[in-house]
């Protein structure tokens, strides 16, 4: 029934990705890899002479040339990153004399995330750049993990002094990289409560919870290791920040801070498309959202929770949609004619129902949710007929 009850509806609105999808072309903090990509093969041999002869046979020095401006800064090819790694690893060896900071910046810049070294908890991350930074960061962390796993498998056999030295340098590079990548988590936690912050916190929590335990197992980092402890603290901070944002979601839905005008003619309100899309984005990290909703929020000592969290994501989605429906009911009072108000609520309820059942939002919703909306739509139809045609029919009967 909900598939064909809408009358003169239009979805309107803006996608929730517009909150975190800025069109920013500049990339501060990026650097080239030219100084670590020598043209002379003899210079290349000098860089990698620290390692075993098998390393020299694997890398073609002719493949290293200064990166041209037209070439994409993100080197998605794992082999390219492995070759860059061979040049940078000597800076992380026990006998290294050169500072590691420059080598680390060059390593991260190859993944287009050199800007993480310029971030800290006290420096605010521009809100309009949150989405772009998080996407680049997640892609870099995933590719970086594959590169470390690939090189770790190659180096550990055969076991000799050269391999042990390279494994130690590889572990130092991994630790430095992982520690630097966690700076984004701190900057997101430092942001004020907002819709974009919640999505960003969930999008960062998921890769950290997946990648960092794997790195710890790979390099035998104990729980007391600096990176392990920092990742645990980052995850806890992201969960706590997400809980604060979840508590504010109902306030955000009711806040008149969005430039939406009440549509005329009973068509679908633009906020319906926005909020239903936002809820779908929120559910794309279900495991992270589970951790957010699993706690009671008592760790937030600065601002004790006034609104309890939902017991699960199904209850949360149900409550937020109910809040949206209540706002629409209040907005319908602005329409002049009572019959038009029923048309407005019929079309908006149909739009909410259609967007829910045709997406992954239907998974956490209880079975009775759909039936309740269908019955509500029947009530709107009857109300419209009674308010609009009841007086006319009564006169005809007379």
Automatic annotation (TrEMBL):
Keywords: Exocytosis, Protein transport, Transport. It comes from the Eukaryota. GO terms for cellular component: exocyst. Residues 136-396 form the Exocyst complex subunit Exo70 C-terminal domain. GO terms for biological process: exocytosis; protein transport. One of its GO terms (molecular function) is phosphatidylinositol-4,5-bisphosphate binding. Residues 1-40 are annotated as: Disordered. Belongs to the EXO70 family. Component of the exocyst complex. This is Exocyst subunit Exo70 family protein.
């Amino acid at each position: 029934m909900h598939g064909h009850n809408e009358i003169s509806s239009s979805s309107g609105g803006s996608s929730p990705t517009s909150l975190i999808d800025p069109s920013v072309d500049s990339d501060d903090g990026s650097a080239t890899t030219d100084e670590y990509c020598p043209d002379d093969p003899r210079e290349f041999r000098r860089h990698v002479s620290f390692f075993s002869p098998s390393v020299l046979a694997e890398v073609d020095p002719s493949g290293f040339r200064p990166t041209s401006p037209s070439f994409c800064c993100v080197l998605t090819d794992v082999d390219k990153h492995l070759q860059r790694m061979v040049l940078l690893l000597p800076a992380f060896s026990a006998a290294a004399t050169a500072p590691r900071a420059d080598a680390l910046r060059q390593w991260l810049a190859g993944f287009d995330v050199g800007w993480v070294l310029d971030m800290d908890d006290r420096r605010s991350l521009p809100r309009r750049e949150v989405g772009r930074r998080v996407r680049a960061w997640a892609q870099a962390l995933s590719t970086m993990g594959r590169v470390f796993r690939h090189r770790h498998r190659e180096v550990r056999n055969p076991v000799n002094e050269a391999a042990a030295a390279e494994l130690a340098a590889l572990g130092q590079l991994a630790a430095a990289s992982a520690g630097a990548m966690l700076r984004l988590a701190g900057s997101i936690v430092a942001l004020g409560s907002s819709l974009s912050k919640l999505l960003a916190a969930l999008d960062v929590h998921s890769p950290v919870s997946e990648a960092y335990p794997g790195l710890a197992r790979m390099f035998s980092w104990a729980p007391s290791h600096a990176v392990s402890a920092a990742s645990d603290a980052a995850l806890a901070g992201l969960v706590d920040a997400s809980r604060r944002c979840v508590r504010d979601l109902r306030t955000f839905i009711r806040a008149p801070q969005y430039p939406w005008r009440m549509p005329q003619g009973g068509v679908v309100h633009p906020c319906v498309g926005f909020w239903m899309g936002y809820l779908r984005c929120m559910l794309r990290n279900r495991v992270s959202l589970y951790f957010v909703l699993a706690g009671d929020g008592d760790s937030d000592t600065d601002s004790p929770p006034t609104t309890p969290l939902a017991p699960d994501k199904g209850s949360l989605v149900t409550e937020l949609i109910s809040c949206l429906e209540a706002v629409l009911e209040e907005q319908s009072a602005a329409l002049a004619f009572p019959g038009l108000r029923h048309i407005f609520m019929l079309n908006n309820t149909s739009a909410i129902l259609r967007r829910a059942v045709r997406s992954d939002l239907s998974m956490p919703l209880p079975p009775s949710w759909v039936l309740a909306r269908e019955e509500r739509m029947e009530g709107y139809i009857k109300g419209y007929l009674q308010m609009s045609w009841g007086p006319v029919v009564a006169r005809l009967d007379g």
